[in-house]
Give the backbone structure.
Amino acid sequence: MVDYPPDSKEYRINLTLIISEMQKSGRILKSNVNNNDIYEDALQNAWISFGKNLPQYDSTKGCIFAWFNAILDRRIKDEFRKIKNDRQHRIYPSQDRETGEPMNPIDLIPAPPDSSDLSERIRQWLQHNEQKLRRLHTKDRWQGNCYQLILEKVIDEKSWREISRELQIPPSTLATHFKNHCLPCLREWLQQRGYEEF
């Protein structure tokens, strides 16, 4: 093993054989961790470290299992440190000043504008840009244009199947055209007016 450089094919083959034999042996440190994900992450990281550092292994200082188990033990401790650090940097919800109860973070998000108001604004935008939006239509089918699709899908909230029956265009064609041509126009207009997502 030591005779082969770590980046050689022979090294990787021998490393795979050693790891396979070690896994079959039953001498690998077992999980005494309640969270199996922590143990599995630590085990995976230990195997990576083992593979990188195997050329430095000194058999006079102990058996390879003791050496590997020491690596695994350090990796388990590393995983717990990561979790502790994540918890320390996590933002917890504020408390209600009157009751002292934790506030739901969702309650801190401002309510979106009234959807009927937004629908009316979109309707006005459609009327103002009708010619431009009607020119953006499906291939060879002027009825499947962005004006019509935004009006029926967004304002009237019709399904693609309903719109398909009306326009005699397959639902998948309408949905694809809407996604690729109509929705970008609508998103751009909404973002210009401060709406983050749509």
Observations:
- The chain is about 60% helix and 5% strand.
- The chain has two domains: 9-89, 115-192.
